Amino acid sequence: MNALLLFFRQLLTWLYWASRPESECARRDASARVWRETRQPLSCHILAMTISTNPHARQCLRRGGSCVVGVSSKDSAMDLADFRKEYSDRGLRREELDVDPVAQFSAWFDHATELHVHEPNAMTLATVDAAGMPYQRTVLLKYYDTNGFVFFTNYGSRKAQQMAENPQVSLLFPWLTLERQVIIQGRVEKISTAESLKYFISRPRESQLGAWVSNQSEVISSRQFLMQKLAEVREKFTHGEIPLPSFWGGYRVVPQRIEFWQGGPSRLHDRFLYRLENSAWQIERLSP
Ligand SMILES: Cc1cc2nc3c(=O)[nH]c(=O)nc-3n(C[C@H](O)[C@H](O)[C@H](O)COP(=O)(O)O)c2cc1C
After folding, report:
1. Whose CA is nearest to atom 5 of ligand 1?
2. Residue whose CA is closest, atom 7 of ligand 1?
């Protein structure tokens, strides 16, 4: 009888919270989870409600259709430990892979573009300084082919100094909405002035001026300082083409290893590593 009463009490609680907007529930810690769990099967809702009445039980996470209950001492409704996403079972099979990693990258890049991934050519560039301290920043991939992956920057910047000291770098494309990631490791080299010029003249005039204005990575006194410099270079190059600054140009990352990561269910993701060995690409599956 008691069990039946408990069941109906929980059912009413579920009906109440299922009818509330998420914003309201979000203010109510464990109740927010009840709201989220309303999208799960009924058994899961009931389990979620049970733990919502228990001040020590804080998590009801759905894994493969069943709830897993965890305990946390944190009170925040935005507990990062609860931010979990179950990946789809799109999967990546060895037979689907192109023998050439650049062709494989191209297929994924086109897919990311077609599906409107935000700035699909934005990539994290990791470098290390002379003391071995790693640094990362976002740069834009401008073109690529079997020779490598090209981006443009200031040749006096912090990254440029680090790449001069250690040309081993890593690139990372985080195509999170596709549950994909590509990591490229390789050696970076400066492209020729002619190649940099070809790209520079294709840029909008304002971007060309911007390259002249910024002594990238240097400490400056104010934004006003930049605006003044911009006015000066605009005045200087009023007529005709804007020349390529000697301190600005491209780098090519020549790949030695390229890893493709596809999210999968139950954290059993698919990872394939292409490794260059005696000028031939070897493909290995890595454990997730
Ligand atoms: C979306 C995005 C794209 C960027 N693209 C470039 C780029 O193509 N080249 C570049 O030099 N900096 C780019 N930056 C700025 C860099 O992240 C970084 O701040 C700058 O290059 C200085 O880095 P450094 O001091 O390590 O040399 C971009 C930043 C963002 C957020």
Report:
1. 139
2. 139
What are the pLDDT digits (tens) for 118-163?
999 999 999 999 999 999 999 999 999 999 999 999 999 999 999 9
The mean pLDDT of 19-28, rounded to a whole number, is: 46
**pLDDT tens-digit map of 99-121:** 999 999 999 999 999 999 999 99
Note the pTM of the prediction, 2 decimals.
0.77
Active site residues: 267
Distance in Å, CA 138 to ligand 1 centroid? 5
Measured in degrees and rounded to the nearest 5, phi and psi for residue 9 equal -65, -40
Domains of the chain: 2-82 (no CATH), 94-201+244-286 (2.30.110.10)
